[in-house]
Amino acid sequence: MVQKAKILLVDDRPENLLALEAILSALDQTLVRASSGEEALKALLTDDFAVILLDVQMPGMDGFETAAHIKRRERTRDIPIIFLTAINHGPHHTFRGYAAGAVDYISKPFDPWVLRAKVSVFVELYMKNCQLREQAALLRLQLEGGGGGKAAIGDAKEPAGLLAELSARLAAVEEQAEALSKQLDDESADAAAVATAAHLERKLTGLRRALDALEPGTGNSPSVSSQN
C-alpha cells in the first residue's frame, strides 16, 4: 500500500497556512504545518517530505536562511522548495530565492490552480522515487541470497519467479515515469522538475540493466548502487 506524501507548509501567519491547506487538500496528501524556520528544520529531522512551501518573510529566521539550512543538510538538500512571498523587489530578490535553492518563486496573491499543479508534479516525482527504492531493496535482498532475504520477499520464492515479479513491478514504474516525463514536456514545466524526472529515469535504467543481467545465461553478477 503506497503511503501518502508529506508536504511541509512554512508560514508565520496561521491564516496563510489555513489558505494553503484549503488549496492543497484536493491532492489528498499529508500536510504538515510549521510556523517558523526553526519549527520547519525540526520537522525535517524526523520526516521525509515531497516538497516544501516556504514563506520568505518571517520573523527571526526568514525563508532564505531556512532554505540555506535545508540545503546544507545531506538528508534534506534534495527536497524541492517553492518560495512564497507577498513582496516583489525585482529580479535581484527573485534571483536570491533561486540562489538559495528554490525550484520556484511565487508572488502572492497566487493562482490556487497553478500552485496546486506545481506541487502535484513534485508529489508525483516523490512517489515514483519511493517506488524505485522499493524495487531496489527487493533486488538487493535477492542478490544477497540466503533464507533471510527470500523470506523477507515472500517465503522462499523461486529465483526465476522472483525475477519475473520484480521485472513486472519495474515495468509498471517505468511506464509511469515515461508518462510523467511526457506530461512535463507538454506542460513546459520548470527546469528543476524536468531534471528530477530525468534523474529518476536514469535510476530506472540502471535498475533495469541489473535485472536483465540476472537473467539465466547472462553470466553476470551485477551490483546495485545508488546513482545520484
TrEMBL record:
* Keyword flag Ligase: no
Location of the Response regulatory domain: 6-123
4-aspartylphosphate found at: 55
Parts forming coiled coils: 163-190
* Keyword entries, A-Z: Coiled coil, Phosphoprotein
**Source organism of the structure:** Streptomyces pseudovenezuelae
Q: Which Pfam families match?
A: Response_reg
Please state what the protein is called.
Answer: Response regulator
Q: Which InterPro entries match?
A: Bact_response_regulator (IPR050595), CheY-like_superfamily (IPR011006), Sig_transdc_resp-reg_receiver (IPR001789)
